[in-house]
UniProtKB/TrEMBL annotation:
UniProt cofactor note: Binds 1 heme b (iron(II)-protoporphyrin IX) group per subunit. Binds 2 calcium ions per subunit.
Residues where Ca(2+) 1 binds: D75, G88, D90, S92
Annotated positions binding heme b: H197
Signal peptide bounds: 1-22
Protein name: Peroxidase
One annotated GO biological process: cellular response to oxidative stress
Single GO MF annotation: heme binding
Native source species: Rickenella mellea
Site (Transition state stabilizer) residue list: R70
Entry similarity comment: Belongs to the peroxidase family. Ligninase subfamily.
Amino acid sequence: MAFKSFLASLISIVALFQASQAGLIKRVACPNSKHTATNAACCSWFNVLDDLQKNVLFSECGEASHSSLRIVFHDAIGFSKNSNKGGGADGSIIKFGDTELEFAANNGIEEIADDLQGVADAHGKTYGDIIQFAGAVGVANCAGAPRLQFLAGRPNATAPAPDGTVPDPFQPVSTILARMADAGFSSDELVALLASHTIAAADEVDTTIPGTPFDSTADQFDTQIFIETQLRGLTFPGTGPHQGEVASPLAGEMRLQSDHNLARDPATACTWQSFANNHALMTQKFSAAMKKLAVLGQNTNKLIDCSEVIPVPKGTSVTPHFPAGKSHADIEQACSSTVFPNLPTAPGPAKSVTPVPPGT
Ligand code: HEM
Ligand SMILES: *[C@@H]1O[C@H](CO)[C@@H](O)[C@H](O)[C@H]1NC(C)=O
């Protein structure tokens, strides 16, 4: 105990010292830009930032910012610890787009791939770097998001990733967890990465209802995804194509079968629940898992830290809540060791979740 508090005070003294040093670090003015940087090697990324925000992401937590995060996963997860196939976070999804964008799991990625290719080419950046950069900037456009690490310097991809590395929402949890483990991620890390579905919508799962969000606040990096997926769902009856699948009980919201199952599987349910009313824990675990995802297959000794270019995200005003008309009684308890937290219910009558407008 005494040693712990000694350590704690030592750590805070070190932190103070670092903070005072930070004030003394000289910033350099970046050429052709209104920005200054502590590392001159990061200057060119400010020009990429301005271009991306103005022409692709529109500085908002909309469709393009969401897609920028999705492509981070689909590029990087093309990696296996147990085979030499797939280069991870290497930009192969753009460089070898003729191959990878044909994979069924990459349906809907074409547009952001095309936009990011244009920006990368205009600024002489590799596709591996532009994907990770846009992902971090896209996340930062969402209120409540963490400021992710950004390392620059990935070489060009040399080969496409094989098909079958991106999990499918209809696979059983065991298959999804095995694939993630093959790429080096634990079940807890997968759950942390799925905080991403708090800023997400589907265009391709059901093409008749494009832009259907996975939670009621798709422009906020809040914890609602971990709450709303735990609401008792509606099971499709009959013999149609969706028979036996479980849908969100909220009008206008889509629930992926994989999110539904991960929220209820004994391997993942308690971690899933732990994020429901703990935004700080969720963002911390998400950042840590993203840091790993962003450099899969890369030699980090050859990358330089340009995190200073990533904008500082705004806070969110959303506090964890049950959607209007729902309460703790609607929770399908899955974690066997702890009861789902009780939360306030949003006031007013139940309302339909608004779709995410298409990017322009
Ligand atoms: C079990 C693993 C996962 C499965 C099965 C899955 C599946 C899906 C599906 C089917 C969509 C809808 C695509 C569409 O129809 O347009 C989607 C969207 C999305 N996913 Fe995942 N995903 C998984 C993990 C991840 C991870 C790890 C990330 C990021 C770290 C991520 C980020 C996103 C984002 C941001 C969107 C929204 C894209 C948009 O709105 O344009 N997903 N995911
Ligand atoms: C990547 O490839 C492009 C051309 O395809 C080339 O201009 C560029 O220098 C390469 N970048 C690196 C870092 O190898």
